[in-house]
Amino acid sequence: MSLNNIDTRDRADMPLTRADIEQRIQMVGGSDKLDVSGQNLQGIDLSVIDLSGAKFSGADLSGANLSGTILSGADLSGANLNADLSGANLSGANLSGANLSGADLSTAILYMADLSEVNLTEAHLSGADLSKARLNNADLSYAELSGAHLSGADLSEAHFINADLSEADLSGTHMSGAHMSRAHLNGAHLNGADLSGADPMNADLSEADLSGARLSESNLSGASVAGVLISAESKEDLLHAIGVRWST
């Protein structure tokens, strides 16, 4: 029988503790061999611990303290992560299909992480590093992403309805088909981004950098574009965007 699947307290209804996790890591010979998939870790304190490469797929980590935790390369797919992940290192982690609704990911590192189809509604991601991450079909409605770094990320078909992306770095992102109605993108860096077919209807794009951005077939009805920085090429795209009146 795998040591990972033994509940040493023989009480399956009780959530695991930090001591249980540390014991299991020692028993299996490293965090990359730890597998607590599908287990109850509600409210656990795993702050500032190295859990790189560990498997938490489908685990319940709601209310957990994972602030400053190293989870690089970890498998958190389908997990319940309505938790404190502020300052955590999740670079290269698999979080696809996870529930991060309301989670605190401020200043977290999610470089090249897989966040496809993740629920990030009302999550706090201000100052987080999501560069080159996969967020296709993710739901970030009402999320706080001010000052976040998302350069080169895949945000295609993602939902950013009423999200705060002010001053965020979205340069070179793939945002085709993204749903961005009423999003706050004031002062955002969207240079080189692909917004073709996106829906930033009634969004605030004032003072945003749209130089080199692709905007063909975008729906900018009611959007504020006052003071945007735009290249000639992007301006031509903007002329073909839905609902935009561009004054020279």
Anisotropy-based shape? elongated
β content, as a range?
Answer: under 5%
N- to C-terminal distance: 72 Å
List how many beta strands DSSP finds: 0
The DSSP helix count reads 2
Radius of gyration: 20 Å
Main sheet record? none
**What series of H and E elements makes up the topology?**
HH
Give the uncertain stretches in residue-range form: none
Task: Determine the fraction of residues in helical runs and give it as a percent range.
Answer: under 10%
- Content-based structural category: little secondary structure
Mean pLDDT across residues: 92
Descriptive notes:
The protein has 248 residues and is low in regular secondary structure. It has two helices and no strands. It has helices at 18-28, 232-239. The longest helix is centred in the first third of the chain and has 11 residues, at 18-28. It is elongated and about 65 Å long. The chain starts with 17 loop residues before the first helix and ends in a 9-residue tail after the last helix. The model has no long low-confidence stretch (mean pLDDT 92).
